[in-house]
Request: fold
Amino acid sequence: MYVLGIESSCDETAAAVVKDGRELLYSSVATQIDTHKLYGGVVPEIASRKHAEDIAIVVKDALEGAGITKEQIDAVGVTFAPGLIGALLVGVNFAKGFCYSLDKPLVPVHHIRSHIAANYLVSPNLEPPFLALVASGGHSLLIDVKDYTDYEILGKTLDDAAGEAFDKTARALGFPYPGGIYIDAAAKRGDPFKYRLPDPHTENPLDFSFSGLKTAVLNLINQHKMRDEEIDSDSLAASFQKTVCDILERKLSLAIDKTERKKVVLAGGVAANSEIRERIEKLCRRLGCSFYMPTRELCTDNAAMVASQAYFEFKSGKVAGMDLNAYATMPADDVRF
Reply:
């Protein structure tokens, strides 16, 4: 079964063709990073316009790269939630037009579910149930994946997600957008114990809170500026990254103990961070869990992961009509359309 995936939830316009939910035939991504670098972050209106300019191009490229015609597509999966509403609507409306013109099934896909599904493309033998740690720009989640379309959220972010904290810390340190890769590189040069940063605690021990950590970094930088003291950017980046890793590792360990799952999946854009990948892999080895993570290319937003999850959603009977709308927010364990 050939599924065309379409992704436009933020600042990547992407299309991909996946066979039977596991085999990636071709992935095409038009990135907007250079455009948004000028502003230090994603500008929603500009992102929406760029999606409208690029979406037909990436779909055509994905089909040609996969070596199939649009008529051979069996279903179209599209990200419909969550994300920037204007950006999402570009993808949803294009997918509806594609499906209507060719009489193909339209499958709505939740962005977080697709991030988890990226693992199916690199680990063909991976099957639920398993525990997923999702860390991305707007989401930090611990999810018990009971089946391909049956999820239970165990913990979520109460304020800033890990990715937001990375980007805002990077901006404060003067690093370009997107800041995560620059913090990762700087951390390798710095002393992670030079600056002591807070480790926020939450009422639900599996929930996340990164706002206080981000604020502590900003305050530390401002205090050094006011005293006209130079700050060690590399060591502050290392201290920040270590603290984030400590939080993720501790909460994942608690979730493993709670669920007794023996398979752990890492997903989301922040999952591309080298220290996070290394720390979680070591934790799983220590606790006797099998560990799965996507390639770095599949951690960031792409349509291959959308097509993969769409296959399983379609198999479970989830098909939308031409009245499908987009939603800026929606929990991954209660998908409605």
Remarks:
- The beta strands are 2-7, 12-19, 23-31, 75-81, 106-110, 130-135, 140-147, 150-156, 263-267, 290-292.
- The first helix runs from residue 33 to 37.
- Residues 303 and 313 are 15 Å apart (CA to CA).
- The chain has eleven helices and ten strands.
